[in-house]
Design brief:
- By secondary structure, this protein is mainly alpha-helical.
- It has two domains: about 45 residues, Homeodomain-like (Arc Repressor Mutant, subunit A), CATH 1.10.10; about 120 residues, Tetracycline Repressor, domain 2 (Orthogonal Bundle).
- The chain contains nine helices and no strands.
- Helix 3 packs across helix 4.
- The chain is elongated.
Length: about 190
């Protein structure tokens, strides 16, 4: 007999409290002083529990980012390739310009530094590939995942990181237009 799984319970409360503590601390103090001890104090969750569940601060941040983006920025399914790409590009442009931008950008940078930061990036790549596969199943000609990354996603992050000037909706749409022209999907 399988044990009954409860949706929520103590585990969910711990995760919520720890995530909220991380986000509050980042809003108040930024990255420089963030550490597990502060998160434990703010959340009321013992440090040992945090280390046991997330392993490291980077593992915890990765989980916070994954949760926030999964709920706040799901990969769209509008029924068309253009609609999906535009909705995703507009949401990403908004995310990297919004109050949580530093969290998302930092997570993207952590993704290149080892296994703790890779989970978010891999999960998002799987979701984006599913979006492209849906378009192909509808008979559309989607770009490759690499083309999507290079033509739309990378420029959005580049503007936010290096120019400290995130792009607006018109620029995000123009990136999608370029991508669709590249893969022969433009109208």
């Amino acid at each position: 007999m399988q044990p009954v799984q409860r949706p929520g319970g103590r585990s969910a409360r711990v995760r919520t409290a720890v995530h909220e503590a991380v986000l509050d601390l980042l809003r108040e103090d930024g990255w420089d002083d963030l550490n597990i001890a502060l998160v434990a104090e703010r959340s009321g969750v013992h440090q040992a529990t945090i280390y046991r569940r997330w392993g490291t601060l980077n593992g915890l941040i990765d989980d916070v980012v994954h949760e926030r983006l999964s709920q706040g920025s799901p990969v769209p399914d509008t029924g068309t390739l253009r609609g999906d790409l535009e909705a995703y590009a507009l949401r990403l442009a908004d995310d990297v310009a919004g109050p949580m931008a530093s969290l998302y950008l930092r997570a993207a940078m952590l993704g290149s530094r080892g296994p703790e930061g890779e989970t978010y990036m891999l999960n998002r790549a799987v979701q984006l590939q599913a979006m492209l596969d849906r378009a192909a199943a509808r008979g559309e000609r989607p770009p490759t995942l690499l083309e999507l990354l290079e033509v739309v996603i990378a420029p959005l992050y580049y503007h936010a990181v290096f120019f400290n000037r995130p792009v607006g909706p018109d620029h995000a749409r123009s990136l999608v237009d370029r991508l669709l022209a590249l893969c022969g999907s433009s109208p």
